[in-house]
Amino acid sequence: MAVGLGIAWVVAGVVVWLVGWAGSTGRLPRNHWAGLRLPSITKSDEAWFTAHRVAGRWLQGGGGLTAMMGVLLVLFSPSPTNADAISLVLVVILLATIIGAAAAGAQAAKKVEPE
Q: How many CB atoms are closer than 10 A to CB 58?
C-alpha cells in the first residue's frame, strides 16, 4: 500500500513542479486547467505571467519536496500507519505551498499596471 501511495505522491509532486516550472519560465499560458485563479492574477495577461513567474518558485519547491518524499515512501515502504502520517504531512506541505504561491503571485500581480 505504501508503494502505491508513494507513487501517487511522486506524480503529484512532479505535476506541481512542472506547473511551477512553466510559470516561472513564462511558458504557462492562461488556461482552464493549471495556474492560480485569483482576481488580481486573472485581470490581464501581464498580471498572469508576472504572478506565475513569482509563484512558480513556490510551486517548484513544494512540488520537488513532495516528489522526493514520495520517492522515500516507495523506497522504504513504511507501515500503513506511518505512510498515512507521512501523507498527512505531504498534504500540509502542498496546501502551504499553494497558499504561499497564491499570496506571492497575487502580491506581484497587484503591482502590474491595469490595462
A: 23
